[in-house]
Amino acid sequence: MYSDDNHQSRVDLDDANDWTVLSDDGGYCWFEAPRAIVSGSQLIVGTVASGTHDASRRGNIEAIVHELDSNTTRISVLHERLEADDHDSPAFALQPDGRVLSMYGRPKRTFVPSPSSRITYANVWMLPAEKHRIYDFYRGPGALAPLS
After folding, report:
1. Are 66 and 45 in contact, with CB atoms under 8 Å apart?
2. Which of 51, 79, 50 lies closest to 63, judged by CA?
3. Which residues does the chain have with pLDDT short of 70?
4. N or C end of the chain: smaller count of CB under 10 Å?
5. 81 φψ region: left (φ > 0), alpha (ψ -120 to 50), beta (else)
């Protein structure tokens, strides 16, 4: 990392030591948010494994947990083999007690945690001014309002 003449931080792309690979097999869709959060010293990133490097991970909904203090990374599988579609990637909300809420779904099929729902593309937001009420803005079929 270095600073240019305008005092902007820049990453030297030739210096591999500046990069940390969090997952060798993850994808996400920009329709869900937030796809990454920081909780204490942990960076949590949501992905869907494609199975390119390990076929047994294909379609896994994963939370990549990177410990910022120790620079170590682990994968927590939220749902095994849901399907290999980046539109299934999880969104996160950090709750006041430190727990992390994750929501994800299958486009035009189901939405976790309710198997009978038909919504997707979670956008999860907690509003402290409303006693930490959590809202999910999503895409749903027909007359279904895009808010729960």
Report:
1. yes
2. 79
3. 1-18, 107-119, 140-148
4. N
5. left
